[in-house]
Design brief:
CATH superfamily of the largest domain: Winged helix-like DNA-binding domain superfamily/Winged helix DNA-binding domain
Structural class: alpha+beta
Distance between the termini: 35 Å
Number of helices: 5
CATH class of the largest domain: Mainly Alpha
CATH topology of the largest domain: Arc Repressor Mutant, subunit A
Largest sheet: 3 strands, mixed
Order of helices and strands: HHHHEEEEEH
Length: 135
């Protein structure tokens, strides 16, 4: 996704496409690494020396409000972010800390007796050891 496409995506969601916003969205789109604010900031500050963590926080919150990005609380003290692309769950490796997207389709979420509940949000988090670390 190039800068023009990102700018159009932001404009379509009522967001003025400033340079920091473009770069933060581009980072999320290209890396797909479920970064923290610190990871985003440290990755972008070299090319944008005037970038602040406050700008990163504010931009991510703006993206969340526009339903472009979602936040994940996988640990008590760690909030991570990702672009909303499709419904999926997450697996975090206890050894290397990598987070993997795990697709789910046609999963039966509600047990018998709860059919009348309306599900608006699903968050499934799995933890364990990834195949790479198991070797």
């Amino acid at each position: 996704m190039d800068s023009q496409m990102i700018a159009e995506q932001l404009l379509n969601h009522g967001i003025k496409p400033s340079y920091p916003r473009l770069q933060i969205y581009k980072y999320l789109y290209m890396k797909r690494n479920h970064p923290t604010v610190d990871i985003i900031y440290n990755s972008l500050v070299k090319e944008m020396p005037t970038l602040s963590k406050t700008t990163v926080y504010n931009t991510l919150n703006l993206f969340i409000d526009a339903h472009l990005v979602t936040s994940l609380n996988l640990d008590e003290n760690e909030k991570r972010y990702e672009i909303i692309i499709h419904d999926h769950s997450h697996f975090k490796c206890e050894n290397c800390g990598n987070i993997y997207d795990i697709p789910y389709e046609n999963i039966q979420l509600l047990p018998e007796g709860f059919e009348d509940f309306q599900v608006n949000e699903v968050q499934i988090f799995l933890g364990g050891i990834c195949p790479h670390c198991k070797k």
